[in-house]
Amino acid sequence: MISLIRPILVALAVVGFAAAITHATDAPGQRSHLVAETTGKTTAPLGTLALNAGGASKLTTSILHVGERRPNFKLRDLEGNYRDISEWDGKLVFLNFWATWCPPCVHEIPTFSNLQKKYADVEVQFLGVALDHPQDVKRFIKEYGMQYPTLYGEKDALDLSKIYGNKYGGLPYTVVIGRDGVVLHTHSGVLNRELAEQLIRNAA
Fold it and tell me: What is the pLDDT of residues 145-174, one digit of tens each?
């Protein structure tokens, strides 16, 4: 499925790289909804997205806006283990949706790796979510390196990015989540070092 939408996402990513614009969310009265796949017979609590490989129940959840608490979700890491976003509660989280085939995504990864090292002692955490097959992500990290964890989800990751406010599905897309779990900022396109450090300072 991800291969079918990849050309569109690449085009959006290139536009985002050129513009590097800040994402504007809908007004509260204009919220759209997304139906996401969850596993098991029991529907997950509202705002929780448990993305697994088997059977499916349906969960409808509102698209996120700045100032709201971030939705819960679980996605696999590169070892195949499910990781819950709540593991990083209490930290300032830069949740970055990216892909190995997205040039502007690749462009910003070294900056994020440097910032992860610089600010690790003040509870800042960069966290990737790859719209990719895990083997592609593993090859990328082996070749280029990445100094922070990344999860993956292919089509599920795209659905999740939309829940987190990425209305048009462009890449890269970054959500800054405060230490209290409230969304502070969303950004479409490359997030440069100057703005990232400003956001870190503002959240101190």
Answer: 999 999 999 899 999 999 999 999 999 999
Q: Which residue has the tokens 């440097």?
A: 114
Please list, residue by residue across 57-66, b when 16 or more beta carbons sit within 10 angstroms of its beta carbon and e when fewer do: eebebebbee
Predicted local confidence at residue 58, as pLDDT: 37
Q: Which two tokens stand for residue 29?
A: 């009265």
Alpha-carbon distance of 86 to 158, in angstroms, equals 20
Residue 41: inside a domain, yes or no?
A: no
Query: With contact defined as beta carbons under 8 Å apart, do 37 and 141 qualify?
Result: no
pTM: 0.75
Evaluate the CA torsion angle 111, 113, 118, 120 in order and state its sign.
positive
- Whether 123 and 93 have beta carbons less than 8 Å apart is answered as no
CATH number at residue 16: 3.40.30.10
